[in-house]
């Protein structure tokens, strides 16, 4: 059993997935991304510029750059042309998840522990469905949120099961920007060291 807290676990399933047409698109796109060494974060059809298919993806180490977006776009386009899941013209947009990213895997919650999050659940958890606070702990079943706004009859900390999660996104803060830049720099340095080791073999 591989460690679900490792960001490089490319086979780690997403907790939050698409429905309807977006789900069909994800089923077509995800195997292509995995073959390239990327992970699908989210795919959505948006009604902007006529119609836009937005694919959010990242490398297994959590990084994404312009070259990576181009590589994904070039690999996905011919597959979409063959499958032809959209009955009208559309623009393809491939991007990184961004710093205030959607949280879709258990490893995201481990990786960004200590940062602010807003989330929604599909069922009531402690008489609520919407939450905002800092991720203070994560285990195999869920995560603990230290809420920044509670009423008198509520506990500060609440455990949210992963099975109840409907949507989750990091909140942009100075700390998050700093940590995201540090993580990106570290991942790039590790990739460079790996490339050097491969060149020496």
TrEMBL record:
GO CC, alphabetical: cytosol
CDD domains referenced in this protein's UniProt entry, alphabetically: YlxS_C
A Pfam family per the record: DUF150_C
Primary location class: cytoplasm
Keyword annotations from UniProtKB, A to Z: Cytoplasm, Ribosome biogenesis
Domain Ribosome maturation factor RimP N-terminal: 28-100
Ribosome maturation factor RimP C-terminal domain segment(s): 103-173
Compartments where found: Cytoplasm
Family: Belongs to the RimP family.
Function: Required for maturation of 30S ribosomal subunits.
Protein name as catalogued: Ribosome maturation factor RimP
């Amino acid at each position: 059993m591989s460690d679900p807290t490792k960001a490089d676990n490319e086979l780690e399933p997403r907790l939050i997935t698409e429905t309807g047409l977006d789900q069909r698109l994800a089923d077509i796109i995800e195997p292509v991304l995995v073959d390239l060494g990327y992970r699908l974060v989210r795919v959505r059809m948006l009604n902007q510029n006529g119609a836009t298919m937005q694919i959010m993806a990242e490398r297994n180490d959590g990084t994404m750059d312009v070259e990576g977006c181009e590589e994904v776009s070039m690999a996905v386009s011919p597959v979409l042309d063959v499958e032809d899941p959209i009955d009208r013209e559309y623009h393809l947009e491939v991007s990184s998840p961004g710093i205030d990213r959607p949280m879709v895997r258990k490893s995201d919650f481990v990786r960004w522990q200590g940062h602010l999050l807003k989330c929604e659940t599909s069922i009531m958890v402690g008489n609520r469905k919407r939450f905002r606070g800092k991720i203070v702990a994560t285990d195999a079943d869920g995560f603990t949120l230290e809420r920044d706004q509670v009423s008198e009859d509520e506990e500060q900390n609440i455990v949210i099961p992963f099975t109840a999660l409907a949507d989750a996104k990091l909140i942009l803060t100075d700390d998050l920007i700093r940590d995201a830049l540090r993580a990106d720099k570290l991942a790039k340095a590790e990739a460079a060291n790996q490339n050097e080791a491969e060149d020496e073999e």
